[in-house]
């Protein structure tokens, strides 16, 4: 079931066209990633979905309704880059306050424990570190038990352990049936969490696929090396369109090719009941896909 539909979205700020023409759909229960270089139009897109910006043209439907429909307030949780809470409000007060906005609030004690904020309940917002503010904003996005959670730069500012804990939390939130739209700069995050990813550049969707599909769509070369448990005829491998070349190194075989090469090689081996020992893969990453699609690195 489609829960979000964006069609030909366009939004300009004065002379700056932030979003030129963006279309995609998000299905119920998926983690949908929006990936793109700085200034690509990601935040403008998700803020339009959240009803915080009005589109210049195009249509958006969230759970079948216009984003401005106030009934969506209870069904869509939003975590944005800037939360803007008063500095003197404590973590507990913020959570208590937000919980009163919703008919069926989540158990915020459990949420804060999972987010590592359990010790900070009495701390004022202004005294939290950047990472703690970030975690509080995630808790506030989830406190209304939303059907859809929109998370913008979820783990920016978190240390590697906190980032991993947050990923686990997001996966458990998804497992409870929540659809998640995730804006991210981090390839590892996109690869680990997202079912599908829209790559946005200069206000347009330049690719939309699963992480594996984006990588397979690259025309870069990949190499797989292994030691087969029984002799393999080169022709079995070269018969696959993904395989360009088979090179022998003594008892080792190196297969060079493109697309979903690993799948091609392992299926040939499986059909012939051959086991690959010492398997090593030099495969393209989502990072490579990103660079090829946008001409830029995410680290810029
Ligand atoms: N309120 C605003 N007023 C004027 N220009 C804006 C405003 N918000 C965004 N922009 C511009 O619109 C373009 C897209 O911005 P947006 O924040 O949507 O991109 P983004 O992909 O989320 O970027 P980042 O990854 O840096 O957050 C940028 O050129 C930005 O400077």
UniProtKB/TrEMBL annotation:
Its main location: membrane. Keywords: Antibiotic resistance, ATP-binding, Nucleotide-binding, Transport. SMART domains: AAA. It is found in: Cell membrane. It is a peripheral membrane protein. It comes from the Bacteria. SUPFAM superfamilies: P-loop containing nucleoside triphosphate hydrolases (SSF52540). GO terms for molecular function: ATP binding. CDD domains: ABC_DR_subfamily_A. The keyword Transport applies. Residues 4-227 form the ABC transporter domain. This is ABC transporter ATP-binding protein. The lineage of its organism: Bacteria, Bacillati, Actinomycetota, Actinomycetes, Micromonosporales.
